[in-house]
Structure formats: structure tokens, C-alpha cells
Amino acid sequence: MTAVVDSPTLALSRRSFLRVSATTAGGLIVSLYFDFPSAAQEAGPGKAKVYPPDAFVHIRRDGRIVIQVNRLEFGQGVQTSLPMILADEMDADWSQVVAELAPAADEYKDPVFGIQMVGGSGSIAHSFQQYRELGARTRAILVAAAAQQWRVAPEQCRTESSVVHGPGGRSAKYSDLADAAAHIAVPETAPLKNPADFRLIGKKTRRLDSRPKCDGSLKFGLDLDLPGMKVAMVAHPPVFGASPKSVDDKAARSVPGVVDVFEIPMVKGRAVAVVADKFWTAKQARDRLQINWDFSAVEREDSSQLWEKYKTLAATPGNVAVTRGDEKALDGIASDNRIIAEYEFPYLAHTPMEPLNTTIRFDGDRAEVWAGSQFQTIDQAAIAEVLGLKPNQVTFHTEMAGGGFGRRAVPDSHVQREAASIAKRFAGTPVKLIWAREDDVQGGYYRPMFMHRVEIGVSADGTPLAWKHVIVGQSLTAGTPFAAFTIKNGVDETAVEGVVDTHYDIPNFHISAHHPEVNVPVLWFRSVGHTHTAYVMETLIDELATRAKMDPIAYRRKLLNPDAKKLHGALTLMEKESAAWRANLPHGHAVGIACHESFETGVACAVDVSIEGNRPKIHRVTIAVDPGLAVNPLTVESQFQAGVCFGVSQLMAKGAITLKDGYVQQNNFDTYTPPYIMDAPTAVDVHIVPSTEAPSGCGEPPVPVISPAVANALSRLTGKRYRSLPLVTV
Amino acid sequence: MQTYNLTVNGERKKVPVDPSTPLLWVLRDDLKMTGTKYGCGIASCGACTVHLAGVATRSCVVPVSLVGDRPIVTIEGIGQDLVGRAVQEAWVSEDVVQCGYCQSGQIMGAVALLKGVPQPTDRNIEQSMGGNICRCGTYVRIRAAIKAASQQLHEGGTQ
């Protein structure tokens, strides 16, 4: 980890360079190009050529400063916080800053992952330095331009709020210097601010995209309207991977407004596409399709049978993920001092509020795409492949997305491939593919089912002496380009993260995993492995604390490695901030505690829970978080306040996707139900541990802690253990 | 195909459309007013909420043929209303939105609530807003913004 304060000046990486050019519209644009490590480049299937230069910063003559955001904005707030970083270093007038979501292009690739993407809570963590350097160099060019005009040394100038001030009271607006600055050579290095001089970074700053999201004017991908545009819907196989045996489309074609009905390939199996003038026409036509499906070549999965299979697997050791200490340590521990726990986690669907969609216009030798994508590089390459083009022949616009939670980061780009297969038949006509909510809920790409079997041997002082843990669940990355980075010794780290890297000191620690193959497509879901591993670890640690008759915070502190500074700091702050209400709980309420580190962010929480109508009622949550330097503390607060509600999803009575005879049994929000306002915590107070460390992620770390904290509170109220999710009843 | 005369945000609109078309899709696809959102199509998420003769209504399950002469107000028009404007401003100042996709419906629901119950309790808020899903989970700030708008309207009204 890099301490921010230790590096006020950073040399420009040899792998990166700046390009400055004047635009035809006037004004200065600055781009910073990175040359990525070759290993990271291999993470993506396509190796797109460098695009014509796109700008990170455009200083317009009217004073507006347009900053390109190299990420999808889908709620996490980077459309505000990344420009804050750049604007701070360049001393821009924040009220004049406009943020734009950058299209797919090499210069917008994640500096660490090597592809353009949002994931791994890396937006700020990976681009903090990048955006600081961009801002500092932009400022340096503007200062040099002013200094040249005034025939003074740049050191004699200072900047503030989009103005360069020079000796003798001279001043010039950035917008008036932009043309001259375009002819200035970009310095190899530019001094970065001392953090004490930050004016935006670290200050609570409201979102730039609020107002258009409150008056209906903001256009999401689904809202796109292009001249002559058609709407497509797809009848997907009801069992994953199946294909139509026969299709009777007479009734469908008779719906006025239907343009065409035809079969398309899927990543696995085939489907039937309907293209029409409008959504309602397409939907009516699709509902009238008579399709005989051929299930002969596909496995028809069944949740109850899968649990049986997983249970058998969990009883045997899997591929070794971690082995530390004596493997036979458990044998020496009396059965009275052993805990055996089996946990079940169902499939979960992400169900972002904006249903999945992609619009493509295929023009023969080019294509244009509009999509809210977390994986621009990968989706662009997939569309190009389907259309028989090169990635750089596909212009890819990043559309604002209504949530995602991982669902728009799909290694096989199945939605984009569908859209491309359809658009290919309508050269020159833009086609918008819309997935109905039913397609989304039933369409797979779920957080996998997981079973954990944990055997713990407890020492005389109540701490775990031996810990044997088997995790069973599908690999998220097997068969994808990510496997080279995530699968080691047959273990997919995305399935075991949160257990293998626990900060609890457990001397004899043996973790293994099985990854069965199941005919259900799976995908990362906000906080990935931590969705289930944190639940297992934090409910078991709480059980051990109860068994040891210790305070759950004190127990955790005792068991946590002293090096886990972020967790210790978060625990201490949470303990202090929640002390008053924890000491004054109403009758029938209980406190639940959990702490967990993910994506290098330490989180601790205390929840106040009672039982109402057989359901947990979450009255209050106190969260303490150490995310390193909090770039926008308001975003951090919002992410945690809302992210814990997202985390409550897996406690919902109807919070599971299940299969019977190959069919998904849920199809919309009435059968797969995310939290409504009454299911979410009534109040959430968020406290940030002051830090000068480099920023770490905040998008995913809110999710893991809440469900074990609530379960721990329920256990204190009922004496029961909650090892099977969803929480159908308390 | 039939032609319907609709009053949307005070303007008369003539729409030739299949009678079974839900009001939501008439707004979005025919009138190109995309502020009202599609989330589920079965009245389970509230993203499509509009006011139909002042009543918060899930436009995804109301066929255009049943609208009749009831005036329609959508997110694009709610700012013309005193309560609507107060709610929108509170949403901005409380920094409620995240992805923002559900917020048109949340705001339409909140305006209807405040028109019926000017100073709602937490329980009133849960009852009235209990059918609107925010997948990001911005509920804590939604509560705060409703209370802020209520207070602002109350103070404004007594001045």
C-alpha cells in the first residue's frame, strides 16, 4: 500500500505518455496513454488497436471543463469522484466541471486490469493516481502557457478555480489559455499537490448526475431512441442451453408492427428473436410464439438434487486452497469442543433495476453500439466477432446504466452477442435488444449456489485451534480468459476469498474447494465470494464468542491478527460510535456484530434487530469503514448506507433462485424479491476512519457484513443458528 | 389500432395505438417520454409510477384503453407542482440517487404521499413507499428526503 502523503511528486511512468492537441472546436485536450503489462492485456480476448486520441480533459472556450470518466457509472458515484480527483489537481472551478462517460478505447482501460471495465471495486483504487497525474499535467501546461505570455517563470504563477495568477496581479482564465496551452510540450513530471492542499478530494461533494436523474431527463441505455430504430426481444430456452426443435411463428408474425422472427445462436443453445417497431409489439409477438424445445442435449438441473450432490462433495476434502499447521489437529480435540457447521447459499440474481439492453447499428464495414457495460473492451470485441469486424470498427458508447452489481460484466458477452446476431440482419437499422424482467430473472448468470462445511476444534480459552473448511460451488472463471489469474491448484479464488485470507489467527487452518460443473451460467455478484464467505466466517466467529461467553467485539479483537490494522481501526470506531445505543436497547431487540475486510477495505458494523412478524426488523446500523483516503466521503457514506440494503437481499424470504427439472422457478419480483423500504435498515450511520493511505474500494465492501450481523442478532434473540439462506423464517 | 386523446402534464396528446398497450409503453415508445421507467411489467417495483387523476399508479399494468379522460402527470411534469418541485429539490440536496433508475417512480410515490400525508411518520413512509424497489438500496436517503421536503413545504406554508 502506498501512503499518499509520501509522494507529492511522482515521475511519469515510462510506460505512459501524454498527447496534447488542439481540437477543431478549439480548446485543449489532454490524453494520457498507458502501455499495459502484457499479462493484463491477455485478460481480454481482443487486443484492440489504439483509437484516434480521445480526451480526458477538454477545456472549452465557455469555461466548461469536460472530463472523461474511464468507467461505467451505474450508481457507484465514480462519475463524480474521478472528475473530483482530476479537477482538484488542476485547480479547476468545480462548478464548471462536466463529466462524460468515455467510449470504449485503449486509453480508457483500467491501469491495473488492462481492459476497460468496472469491477473488483477498482475504479478509484486503480485510477486515483492516474487522474491526479492527468490533472497535474493539465495544470502544468496551462501555467506554462500563462508564464510564456507574461514572460515570467512558471514558478511565479499559482492557480485557483480555473484561473492562473501571475506576478503583478496578472491573471488569465484557463479557457483563455487553452489554445496557447495546446502548443506547449507536456512536462515529463508535474508536481502533485500536498494532500493538505486538496480542495475537493476528501470533501463531501454532491453527485453531478442527481438532477437529471430526478426530473426524468437522463437517458439510460434503455431510453435510447434513434431514427428508424427497431426493438428486439428474444424467446430464450426455458432450460439453459436448449434449442428449438420447431417454431410456429404464424401468430407472432400476425401482430401488427412485427418486422421479423428468426432463430439466433446463443453462447450455448439457440433462441428465437422477434424484431418489431416497439416494445409492446415485440412482447406480444414473443408471447404468441409456439416453440417446441429440444432438451435432449442438456442437463436439467434441480436445486434439491444439487444440494444432495454438494453435501456429498463437502464431506470430502477438495483441492487445497490453504493448508497451515497440523492437518490432524482436529483429531486431538474432544467432540464436546468441536463444532460442525454446514451452510447453504442459493443462486442469486442481480436484477439491476434497468433491464439488460444493448442497441447496435450495423453498417457493413462498421458498427455503432450503445450499452451500459462494465466490460467495454470485452463486449466490443464480442460484437465485432459476431459482425465479422475488428474491434476498432465498432464504436462503443458507454451508456449510463441503471444498476449492474456485476451483471453487466459478463466474460462471454452473451447479451451483446445476441444483440449483434440480431442487428447483423438489419444493416443500416439500429436495433435495441431488450430483456424483459422475466428474461433477467430466469436468464442465469447467477451468483452460484454454495455449500460450506466447517469443522472447528475449540481450545480451552475459547479460540479456534483447528479449522477445516470445505467449500463447494461452481467456478466463476473456469473457461473464461480470467481463469489464468484466478484459478490456482484447481481452486477458483473467487469462491474462497474471505476465508483463505481471513485476518483471524487460527493456527491449524485447512481450506479446500470443489467446483462441480452445473448447467447453470454463473457470474460475479457484488462482493463476489465475500457474499457467502463473510457470512460463514462472521456467524461462526460470533458463535465461538457466545460459546466463550465473551463480548463479540472483544472476541474479534482478541482473535484478529495485530497486522489487520484496517479491521482493528474499524472495530474500534464502530464500538465507540455505537456504544450509546447498544447500551440502551429496547426490550426484544438484540445487537449483531460483524466485521470483514474485502477489496482492501476494512468494515465493522453493529445492527439493532428485533423480530416483527417472523422477519428481522433492522432498526439501526452503525458502520465504521477504513477505505484509505476517502476521495468523496459523501459517496462512501451513500455506498455503505445503500450497500447494506443490497446485502439484505440474501436474507429476504423470497431471496433465492431455485431450479426444478431444469426450469428456473422464479420469474419476476413477485417470486424473487429484493428488499423494499420496510425490509431495509431504518437508519444507517457511517463513520470513516481517518486515513492518508491510498484509496481502496467502496462499491462492494458494504455488502458482506450486513447479513451475518443480522443473523448474529437473530441468534441472540432466538438461540437458533441460521446456516441456510435465504432466511425463509426466523 | 385505436386513437386515444390523453392529457399528459397538461398537454393534449393524440395517440394511435393498440388498446392493450400499457400506458407505460405509450409514454415511452409513442410519446418518447422516457422518464417513466420499465422495471418489472407486473406492478411489483414501482419504477413506472405516474399520477393518474392525482393517484400514484403503476403505468405498466394500465392499458391505455382504461385511462379515459383522467389527466396523467409524469416525472417530466411533476416539477410544475409545488410539492413535486419540493420533493425533487430534496432528492438533490439529500444526494439520494445512485444508479437513479428507480427514482422517477420513488419521487412520484413520495409526491403522492406528501399530498395525502403532509408530515409522514416512518410507518407512513413504509406503507406508502413499500411497493417501490430501489435495488441500490437508497432507502435511508429516500426517508430523509421525504422528511426534508415535508419540512420545507411546512415551513414554506406557514411563512
The gyration radius over C-alpha positions of chain A equals 27 Å
The helix content of chain A, as a percent range, equals 25-40%
What is the CATH top level name of the largest domain in chain B? Mainly Alpha
Distance between the termini of chain A: 42 Å
Here the CATH topology of the largest domain in chain A equals Aldehyde Oxidoreductase, domain 4
- What would the CATH topology of the largest domain in chain B be? DNA polymerase, domain 1
Backbone shape of chain A: globular
Which stretches of chain A are low in confidence, meaning pLDDT under 50 for 5 or more residues running?
1-26, 31-54
Structural class by secondary-structure content of chain B: alpha+beta
Domains of chain A (count)? 3
Number of strands of chain A: 32
**Which pair of protein chains has the largest interface, and what are the residue counts?**
A-B, 65 and 60 residues
How would a textbook summarize the main sheet of chain A?
7 strands, mixed
Main sheet: strand order of chain A? 13-14-11-21-18-19-20
Number of helices of chain A: 18
The CATH architecture of the largest domain in chain B comes to Orthogonal Bundle
Indicate the proportion of strand residues of chain B: 15-25%
Describe this protein's structure.
The complex is a heterodimer of chains A (730) and B (159). Chain A has 730 residues and is of the alpha+beta class. Chain A folds into 3 domains: 4-214, 2-Layer Sandwich (Aldehyde Oxidoreductase, domain 4), CATH 3.30.365; 221-296 and 356-434, Aldehyde Oxidoreductase, domain 4, CATH 3.30.365; 316-347 and 446-718, 2-Layer Sandwich (Aldehyde Oxidoreductase, domain 4), CATH 3.30.365.10. Chain A is built from 18 helices and 32 strands. In chain A, the strands form 9 sheets. Chain A has a 7-stranded mixed β-sheet, with helices on both faces. In chain A, strands 2-3-4-5-6 form a 5-stranded mixed β-sheet. In chain A, strand 30 and strand 31 (663-664) form a beta hairpin. In chain A, helix 2 runs parallel beside helix 3, helix 9 packs parallel to helix 10 (414-423) and helix 14 (530-547) runs parallel beside helix 18. Chain A is globular, with a radius of gyration of 27 Å. The model of chain A is unreliable at 1-26 and 31-54 (pLDDT under 50). By secondary structure, chain B is an alpha+beta fold. Chain B folds into 2 domains: 2-73, Ubiquitin-like (UB roll) (Roll), CATH 3.10.20.30; 78-158, [2Fe-2S]-binding domain (DNA polymerase, domain 1, Orthogonal Bundle), CATH 1.10.150. Chain B contains 5 helices and 5 strands. In chain B, a hairpin with a 2-residue loop joins strand 1 (2-8) and strand 2 (11-17). In chain B, helix 2 crosses helix 3 and helix 2 packs across helix 5 (139-158). The longest helix of chain B is centred in the last third of the chain and has 20 residues, at 139-158. The model of chain B has no long low-confidence stretch (mean pLDDT 97). Classes of the chains: A alpha+beta (730), B alpha+beta (159). The interface between A and B is large, with 65 and 60 residues.
